Amino acid sequence: MRTRPPPVPAAAHRRATATAAGAAPAPAPAAADDLVMRHNRSLAALLRAGRYGAARRLFDALPARSVVTWNSLLAGLARRPDARAAREFFDAMPVRDAVSWNTLLAAYSASPHPDHLAAARRLFDEMPQRDVVTWNTLLGAYARRGLMDEARRLFDEMPQRNAASWNTMVTGFFAAGQAGDVCSARALFNEMPDKDLVSWNTMISGYTQASDMKESEKLFWEMPDPDTVSWNLIIQGFMQKGEAEHARGFFDRMPERGTISWNTMISGYEKNGNYISSVKLFSKMLEVGEIPDRHTFSSVLAACASIPMLGLGAQIHQLVEKSFVPDTAISNALITMYSRCGALNDAEAIFKQMHTKKDLVSWNALIGCYEHHGRATKALQLFKEMRRAKVMPTHITFVSLLSACVNAGLVSEGRMVFDTMVHEYGIVARIEHYAALVNLIGRHGQLDDALEVINSMPMAPDRSVWGAFLGACTAKKNEPLAQMAAKELSTINPDSSAPYVLIHNLHAHEGKWGSAAVVREEMERQGIYKQPGYSWIDLEGKMHVFISGDTWHPNAQEIFSVLEGVDRTCRDWS
């Protein structure tokens, strides 16, 4: 279908017609040329700011335009998702140069529309002249879509290649993600006549993504001059594999570190569960004068939430407010941190301050906060507000809601939440939803219904489901069902002490000491031991850890004295 091109002023049309006919246009005075250049700069500024409407109005009002003017607006249109507007404008251009053709080719190549790759190829074939940028643009279009056979054929046809051509091919092979393609990427890299810094970093990044840190590290040491990006890639790769000490070794040897380097280490420690190291490195970052950014604060707040360390988390909150206005991601991290550190009021205050900046994570974070603190009614009320705000919940939302109902014993509400998830929102129930539902129903004494839920599950129940059912059976002292659940749980996880301990405690509670002893002997025969429980508290910036049966704490005598008093009070009340 032909489309009407945008209007071109008569003066511009006469100049274009004269030029196309071979007549030399009248020379413009220097002042006019200067005016066109100023207009071009204004047009470029509007396009950089994304003000396409204002740019188009300025373009239409211009008394004179150069090919640079046309190319500037074409480039702006080419950055938009739909390449059709760029094509219409291109067709209306009175004069086109290599930049014009390459700009439209780039628009087609970057477009996600399924037909635009073929349009890019047709345009490529129509081009009166092609330079290395032309070839690289189409090459990148094939490589980004994983069409490496087509990319290879085009690469082999290229009359001239530069480093970008080779790097595009190497990146494309790695992006395909198959072992054979990794080999192809390496073979091509070895053929490269001139490897630049991007070439080396592309290879290191590719091996890192493929979790081949042996080759990645080998290439790193072969590099003639690694830059900060090279070091960061290696550090990130080792952190992703859980080798934090190896990553730290590279970090400590870095000749120059940037914010990304610090963030990679701090985030890596946090994701690998080494929260103390994450916090300590953050402190060192501040000591050396490196300025943290939003990513730094998000990672260290997550570490504080996991330890948990309320004092440090609150200090970081103050740093955030002094540094910049907290965005949604930072606010969400603060809600989670305050929640896990027991500061429910602070978490609620952050949520209320967000106003219109709340996203799905914000709602889930506070619902999870209420669940964590046993405030099931508040969690359900917030879910109602979430629905009124037309925020679409996810499976995470319903895990928190179901868990809240379990903790509060709200059976009918929990069943309603499960039904809402499945029937109203069309969310397929996952194993964690079934585990929560089994726990909820079973602990209410409806063991047969809980077993029916297990038997109707579309997937095989895992240890969380059988563990929930076993806990409910022992709580309700149903030995036959408890034995059955314990057997299933031991089959799934033979090294777990949980089924043995629960059955042992069930026998002991009923005074069946012989049966309890048999369970204990079976544990010893299997070499299964119960890991001692532990807890911790952050008191005035110092972490106090308590392990079951441990008397090494300096205040152990006073602590056990208080615990005995609490135990006596509970027994008196019961």
TrEMBL record:
PPR repeat ranges, renumbered to this chain: 66-100, 131-165, 196-226, 227-261, 327-357, 359-393
Gene3D superfamilies: Tetratricopeptide repeat domain
Gene Ontology molecular function: any one: RNA binding
Alphabetized Pfam families for the sequence: E_motif, PPR, PPR_2
Renumbered residue ranges of the record's region Disordered: 1-25
Domain of life of the organism encoding this protein: Eukaryota
InterPro entries attached to this UniProt entry: E_motif, PPR_At4g14850-like_plant, PPR_rpt, TPR-like_helical_dom_sf
Stored PROSITE patterns: PPR (PS51375)
Keywords noted in UniProt: Repeat, Transit peptide
Gene Ontology terms: biological process: RNA modification
The protein's name in its UniProt record: Os06g0228900 protein
Organism per entry: Oryza sativa subsp. japonica (Rice)
Lineage of origin: Eukaryota, Viridiplantae, Streptophyta, Embryophyta, Tracheophyta
